[in-house]
Write a structure and sequence with these properties.
alpha+beta; Double Stranded RNA Binding Domain; Ribosomal Protein S5, domain 2; 2 domains; 8 strands
Length: 165
């Protein structure tokens, strides 16, 4: 029996050509930063390096799929405000009312859309490094906790499922 690998949609946050200077000249490599998510509360970010762009993207996707986290969502937004720092980047996430949309830019938007959040206010503070902003967003999403009213709603839903069976 083969293990079926879950296939998540992937989005490239950045694809950079990096250079190492050696005695004979320059050596070029590629670094890809990729976010994968199912749009229903699961998301992962990965970085891959390789001699050519497709190799680095494949490595980044594999890394992101290994590091997938599950996010506690409250409807189409997050349950509470949160501010997290990663390296020099600080990301602030605030829940928004229904119909607001995602107010975010760059790497933060890519991660938030991959996880399936439709209403959110964000601000990236400090560094504008895409990698650090993506990891700060992942860290913030992993630290979200459900509020009491959300716990009651989810427990009522699970109780209804049990009764139906």
């Amino acid at each position: 029996m083969e293990k079926e690998k879950k296939e998540f949609p992937e989005k490239i946050i950045s694809l950079d050509r990096v250079t190492r200077v050696v005695k004979g000249g320059r050596r070029f490599r590629f670094r890809a930063t990729v976010v994968v998510g199912d749009g229903m509360g699961k998301v992962g970010v990965g970085i891959g390096k390789g001699k050519d762009a497709p190799t680095s993207i494949i490595k980044a996707v594999n890394k992101a799929q290994k590091d997938i986290i599950e996010v506690n969502l409250s409807g189409s937004t997050i349950p509470h405000d949160i501010q997290v720092s990663f390296g020099g980047a600080t990301v602030l996430l605030k829940p928004a009312s229904e119909g607001t949309g995602v107010i975010a830019g760059g790497a933060v938007r890519s991660v938030v859309e991959a996880v399936g959040i439709r209403d959110l206010l964000t601000k990236a503070l400090g560094s504008n490094n895409k990698i650090n902003n993506a990891y700060a967003t992942i860290t913030a999403l992993s630290k979200l906790r459900l509020m009491e009213k959300d716990k009651k709603v989810s427990s009522e839903k699970s109780a209804k499922k049990v009764v139906k069976k």
